[in-house]
Design brief:
The complex is a heterodimer of chains A (about 325) and B (about 280). With about 325 residues, chain A is α/β, with parallel strands linked by helices. Chain A has helices at about 5-20, 35-40, 55-65, 75-85, 85-95, 120-125, 140-150, 200-210, 230-240, 255-265, 285-295, 300-315; strands spanning about 25, 45-50, 70-75, 100-105, 135, 155-160, 185, 190-195, 215-220, 225, 240-250, 270-275. In chain A, α1 runs parallel beside α7 (about 140-150), α3 runs parallel beside α5 (about 85-95) and α8 (about 200-210) crosses α12. Chain A is about 40% helix and about 20% strand. With about 280 residues, chain B is of the alpha/beta class. The mean pLDDT of chain B is about 95. The chains are: A alpha/beta (about 325), B alpha/beta (about 280).
Chain lengths: ~325, ~280
């Protein structure tokens, strides 16, 4: 279910205190979305659509359609968005009903339940939809902040939560979270790693490994994938020899796609490499095994960056 | 409150005018063609809804107490739009804008001020939306009702049934569904292509109260649509004829979406006027 999913439940408990109109729609997913405490505290504010994600999105839209109240729709990322994509496109992107999708266990987090339960192209789908805001949490603390920030963001939001129960910490201390404003977590003059979700921790660890080799990295937590923080990008483009995006998502259409699209219209930009899920379905297994197949662990990321620099710049 | 309630005779006359508008709209669509036959099957349903059943105020289209009508089988705009025009939501001379670039009525846009409470032309999208609205209305103690029109073949879409289940689970007796049972989809007869069988029994098995009526019979429609169930949502299976009112269109699958020639238009108009 993911620790970040549990964090989302905490965030929603806090919101419910101040917003009695807020509703949560689930698809037999109270437990999946860590909403047990929420449901026990506010049973009337949780509407179960049954295991029917398309209906869940339609009901959420209908609930929000009269007074614009905030409605969260929560279940696995593979189903809240991917399975219900037409309902999301029409009700959220087009009609802009005030619905916030919370997708748990994105990426490979569903592990051996495998392809059907992995959400590995969801960002690409959501990005192609007008009016969508896409937020992706690096750790549990950020997940709470994102779920809360989504409440005050007018219109549709897709909150992408990845990771397992033992989700590693990225933010040791409290920080101010702002949608659309990326967080620079580490500074270095050679390479910029732009990461999102669980890959922020891996990117930080990779940067540590690279620093031992004398390669110094910026590490950016690009928690808002749409709208992209272009101000932050402009800054790092000016000061890096190599840019790498790192995501637990297809290299097509996700964070890497978004950054590539932005760079392609700028002049004299550094080279970009996209580290992410290759355009193929890999072997089935647990989270780390899946990451390894696509070069998403910290040592693999460090190795890749190091080779790129040696090949291109003889460093 | 600005709303006329029509007598049965007036509704009959309204149906005739709506069919004439439908032919005008089909002609105006030109070579793009129009969804003619599926509109003609639900003329009486729309006429009774807007002429006698739905509560609304033309002077205040966003009046909170208005009944909410959510259109399914939204391709039937040749019935839906003339009903509202005739009752005064907008002038009848804007009807032909439904096929014009950026026209007032093009596509199926969500325009509450014109009586369009939801906009979609994709089958199976609207039922869950109506359920969401009905839950909201229950939770906030609204007295109005939510009506939804579906096509019988539209019920081949899974999400329709996904939404029927919570409707009865949440005891949404403020929700009324009318199923236009014209026994036809694009490719022909539903019972040959994808049998819908006894839809009343299906609805009852899903925990709904249900009735089957003649969907062209105005008194039967008024009676069914005036009924107020307790503790259950209500489904009216309205048996109809696809293409009703124009001999060469009735039960002819070629007219689901088709181009109406000038000569055919003249014949249709004559038949409708004679009726």
């Amino acid at each position: 279910m993911g620790q970040k999913g549990a964090a989302a439940g905490i965030g929603m408990m806090e919101l419910a205190k101040n917003d009695p109109d807020m509703r949560v729609v689930v698809a037999d997913s109270v437990a999946i979305a860590s909403l047990d405490r929420f449901y026990n505290s506010y049973p009337d504010r949780v509407i179960n659509a049954g295991i029917s994600e398309q209906s869940m999105i339609g009901i959420a839209a209908g609930l929000s359609s009269e007074d614009g109240r905030v409605v969260y729709a929560c279940t696995y990322a593979a189903f809240v968005l991917v399975k219900a994509i037409e309902f999301v496109r029409h009700n959220l992107a087009y009609h802009q009903f005030n619905v916030k999708l919370v997708g748990n266990s994105a990426g490979f987090a569903m592990e051996t339940l495998s392809i059907s339960h992995w959400a590995t192209e969801d960002i690409a789908m959501a990005r192609a939809l007008p009016n969508m805001t896409i937020l992706s949490a690096a750790d549990s603390l950020e997940a709470i902040k994102i779920v809360k920030a989504a409440h005050d963001r007018k219109g549709p939001v897709y909150v992408r939560l990845s990771g397992l129960l033992n989700c590693p910490i990225v933010y040791e201390k409290d920080f101010e979270y702002q949608i659309g404003k990326a967080n620079k977590l580490r500074e270095g003059e050679d390479v910029t790693l732009i990461a999102t979700g669980m890959m922020v921790r891996e990117a930080l660890d990779a940067a540590e490994l690279l620093s031992a080799k004398g390669i110094h990295c910026n590490v950016i937590d690009m928690h808002t994938i749409k709208p992209l923080d272009t101000e932050c990008l402009d800054e790092v483009l000016a000061g890096s020899r190599l840019i790498a995006t790192v995501e637990e998502h297809s290299i097509i259409g996700g964070l890497g796609g978004a950054v590539a699209e932005y760079l392609s219209e700028k002049e004299n930009t550094p080279r970009l490499i996209r580290i992410g899920i290759k355009d193929q379905f890999g072997k089935l297994g647990d989270l780390r095994y899946c990451w390894e197949q696509h070069g998403l662990t910290a040592p693999q990321i460090a190795e890749k960056i190091s080779l790129e620099l040696i090949n291109k710049y003889n460093k | 409150m600005n709303r006329r309630v029509l007598s049965e005779e007036e509704i009959k006359a309204l149906c005739k005018r709506m069919r004439l508008h439908a032919m005008d709209m089909a002609l105006a669509a030109g070579n793009r063609g129009a969804h003619i036959s599926g509109s003609l099957s639900c003329i009486e349903i729309y006429a009774v809804l807007y002429g006698a059943i739905l509560n609304y105020d033309l002077d205040n289209p966003l009046w909170n107490e208005r009944d909410r009508f959510i259109a399914g089988k939204e391709h039937a705009r040749l019935a839906e739009y003339p009903a509202r025009a005739e009752m005064g939501f907008y002038p009848t001379d804007v009807l032909n804008s439904y096929e014009q670039n950026d026209g007032l009525l093009v596509g199926h846009q969500l325009k509450k001020e014109l009586g369009v409470e939801y906009g979609s032309m994709s089958l199976g999208m609207e039922m869950s939306f109506a359920v969401g609205k009905a839950i909201w209305a229950k939770q906030t103690q609204q007295s109005y009702r939510i009506y939804c029109l579906l096509g019988d073949a539209e019920c081949e879409e899974g999400p329709v049934w996904e939404a029927f289940i919570p409707a009865s689970h949440y005891k949404l007796d403020n929700l009324i569904v009318i199923i236009d049972r014209n026994y036809m989809s694009v490719d022909g007869n539903t019972e040959e292509l994808m049998a819908q069988l006894d839809m009343q029994k299906k609805m009852e098995a899903f925990g709904w109260e249900s009735v089957t009526i003649d969907g062209h019979d105005i008194p039967q429609l008024i009676r069914a649509l005036s009924y107020r169930p307790v503790g259950k949502p209500y489904a009216i299976i309205a048996t109809t004829i696809k293409g009703k009112g124009v001999s060469f269109i009735e039960n002819n699958k070629s007219w689901h979406q088709a181009v109406l020639s000038e000569a055919q238009y003249q014949q249709a108009i004559e038949e409708i006027q004679r009726s």
